Amino acid sequence: MDGIYIYLGQEGDLMVTLKNGVKGLSKLIKGDIPQSSIVLVTGAPGTLKSGFVYAILQNYLSKTGKYGLYITLEQSRESLLINMKSLGIGGDRGIEVVDFSDIREKFREVEKRINMLKLINGLLDFFENKEKKKITCFALDSLSALLPLLGEVDLRSEIFHLFQILRKRCETSFILCETPSVQHLPEYTPEYFLGDGIIELGITRIGKRYGRYIQILKMRGTPHKIDRYEIRVGSSGIEILNPI
């Protein structure tokens, strides 16, 4: 079977396909993203990180009736939804979008420093209790915006325990990271070492013009291509085209 599938639940129990979330994604990955995976989506500003992740979650949650949490620290909820609509990704069915102002209101102790593990656990508890539903999908937009708020902590330990929480509590988690390129990062940057998958989005020269690309750098447990493919916003939303 062509396409990318997530098997959520008992082994062999096909619950949802992601290939309709982003057109052409099946060109890059075959098989499945294993349950409890942490997938990092990295790239510079303007490379469609938020749109890519939101499109996948919106497709999955709207078709399954399940519940997901999308935390945005870099823009307001309203701004995010407007941007998604402009990309041809409409609707927020099944997705609870929370921005930093919401977090400050619900967790008034959040001021200059944040206990990341307490915050994420608290948000998961709050919205699961509110909706009486388990949060199956989680997105943090972005880890890069959260890290400066943590103060002096053991970064590798914090990220390790965050990923452990997400693996136990959620079926699939996407962590967005703002960076020019993975190749410019230190060799042992914790999130890249500890994550199960890395998807890089960027901007490069394509012939005589510049365009956006997507590249799967790592995806544990499933075969994938490592070539760069062009990714763009088409008439029906985000789509992946040919290798470049």
Strand order of the largest sheet: 6-5-7-8-4-9-10-11-12
Strand content: 25-35%
The overall pLDDT, averaged over residues, is: 85
CATH second-level architecture: 3-Layer(aba) Sandwich
Describe this structure in words.
The protein has 7 helices and 12 strands. The chain has 244 residues and is α/β, with parallel strands linked by helices. A 9-stranded mixed sheet has the order 6-5-7-8-4-9-10-11-12, sandwiched between helices. The protein has a 3-stranded mixed sheet with strand order 2-1-3. β11 (229-234) and β12 form a beta hairpin. α4 packs parallel to α6 (155-169). The protein is globular.
Write a compact overview of the structure shown.
The chain is 30% helix and 30% strand. The chain has 244 residues and is of the alpha/beta class. It has a single domain (4-243), classed as Rossmann fold, CATH 3.40.50.300.
Set out the fold topology.
Elements lengths: L3 E3 L9 E2 L13 E2 L4 E7 L5 H16 L2 E6 L4 H10 L8 E5 H7 L9 H16 L3 E7 L1 H4 L8 H15 L2 E7 L11 H5 L2 E10 L2 E11 L9 E6 L2 E7 L1
Parallel strand pairs: 1-3, 4-8, 4-9, 5-6, 5-7, 7-8
Antiparallel strand pairs: 1-2, 9-10, 10-11, 11-12
Which labels suit this protein?
12 strands, nine-stranded mixed beta sheet, three-stranded mixed beta sheet, 7 helices, 244 residues, 30% strand, globular, Rossmann fold, alpha/beta, 30% helix
